[in-house]
């Protein structure tokens, strides 16, 4: 019906993309395909509209992690470099994704937790991959 009346969706719903983990990614404890990519800090901040939250600032007032709560008490965690200055988020215009992993609680530094992505159901994995794909769309 939307197509018949040439109405554009205000947000992805009917035509929402479906994303899937590869078998290798399901068995892994981090998502290599997104790591090492550099993205604008503003795009990282945009994840907050999707339920992501920046970490508490460290002693240098830098937030080097952004995370999103997932089912079963897990967090999807992205470790950033050089990190976002809490007092001036636009001071560092770009962020490099250092490690994309799952954790039980926010940690310090990019450390692997051993949680594999096989723990995620298909819907949760698709939503997470959708967010990461949107985030990295502007990466060179």
From TrEMBL:
Pfam families, A to Z: DUF4132
InterPro entries, per database record: DUF4132
Annotated DUF4132 domain residues: 2-52
Protein name, per record: DUF4132 domain-containing protein
């Amino acid at each position: 019906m939307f197509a018949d009346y040439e109405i554009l969706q205000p947000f992805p719903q009917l035509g929402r993309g479906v994303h899937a983990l590869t078998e290798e990614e399901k068995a892994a404890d981090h998502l290599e395909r997104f790591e090492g990519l550099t993205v604008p800090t503003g795009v990282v901040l945009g994840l907050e509209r999707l339920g992501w939250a920046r970490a508490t600032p460290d002693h240098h007032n830098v937030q080097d992690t952004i995370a999103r709560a997932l089912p079963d008490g897990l967090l999807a965690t992205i470790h950033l470099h050089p990190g976002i200055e809490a007092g001036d988020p636009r001071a560092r215009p770009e962020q490099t994704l250092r490690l994309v992993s799952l954790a039980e609680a926010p940690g310090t530094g990019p450390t692997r937790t051993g949680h594999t992505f096989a723990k995620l159901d298909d819907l949760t994995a698709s939503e997470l991959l959708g967010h990461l794909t949107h985030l990295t769309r502007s990466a060179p």
